[in-house]
Design brief:
GO molecular function: oxidoreductase activity
InterPro entries: NAD(P)-bd_dom_sf, SDR_fam
Shape: globular
Distance between the termini: 21 Å
Helix content: 40-55%
Keywords: Oxidoreductase
Radius of gyration: 17 Å
Largest sheet: 7 strands, parallel
Pfam families: adh_short
Number of helices: 8
Strand content: 15-25%
Organism: Candidatus Lucifugimonas marina
Length: about 250
């Protein structure tokens, strides 16, 4: 049975494509009011349009999670529009630098990936936490990865950033429990998002194009299936779930 998110006020980052888009559609269909954050304005608008055409209630903000001023302003605006924030689902992230050797890894790629994936997670949580503390409750769901948590990665920067996100979630869990704020992090597996498909293509090229690229892409899991996990964690039914949740 689908979860009931009626009345839930949710911020979703990375809402334009992939897991973020699928989760936006799913939680909206389950009754949530959604503030969608992304930098991909075209796909973001399309996602919001699809939600609202189906009878949902969603609004889009252009937000670069690296920009603290933009994040603080958007969270404040979303809080006003939503009437509060019950749940943050933070999906925004990038994967760059696949198959590059460590001694040749460019610092600008390292900085970009760490800024978006790790610093962005810290920044959005910083401002959403302030809202939730005032309310006396909330749910924060971060997106880590198997990369950097229980395995390696095709990119030194990506694995390091996601290991950091996982660590951040553990620290937040311990510190925010006294404010009745539940923190989880999801560790998606190989999911058919634009980010992962591009990574599969990069690794296929780096491996000398061995094997069938189409088969590799088709083996990826649907974002819609993963969105079910986020929707459940956003619900009251997940109140007893602690820590990290791994998916296929």
């Amino acid at each position: 049975m689908p979860v009931d998110l009626s009345g839930k006020r949710i911020i979703i980052t990375g809402a334009a494509t992939g897991i973020g888009r699928a989760t936006t559609l799913r939680v909206s269909a389950a009754g949530a009011k959604v503030a969608a954050f992304d930098v991909n304005d075209t796909d973001g608008s399309n996602t919001i349009g699809e939600v609202n055409e189906a009878g949902g209630d969603a609004r889009y903000w252009h937000v670069d999670v690296r920009d603290e001023t933009a994040v603080s302003g958007a969270v404040a605006a979303a809080e006003t529009w939503l009437g509060g924030v019950d749940v943050l689902i933070h999906v925004a992230g990038v994967l760059q630098g696949a198959a590059l050797e460590l001694d040749e890894f460019p610092e600008d790629i390292w900085d970009t990936v760490l800024d978006i994936n790790l610093r962005g997670s810290f920044t959005i949580c910083k401002y959403v936490t302030g809202v939730m503390k005032k309310q006396g409750k909330g749910v924060i769901i971060l997106t880590a990865s198997g990369a950097g948590v229980h395995g390696g990665s095709s990119s030194f920067a990506y694995g390091s950033s996601k290991g950091g996100v996982h660590g951040l979630s553990l620290v937040m869990e311990a510190h925010l429990e006294k404010y009745n704020i539940r923190v989880n992090d999801v560790l998606p597996g190989a999911v058919a998002t634009p980010l992962k498909v591009a990574n599969v293509e990069d690794m296929h090229d780096a491996g000398g194009k061995q094997g069938d690229l189409e088969e590799k892409v088709n083996a990826l899991v649907s974002p819609d299936d993963i969105s079910k996990v986020y929707a459940f964690l956003a619900s009251d039914e997940a109140s007893m779930v602690k820590g990290s949740v791994r998916t296929r």
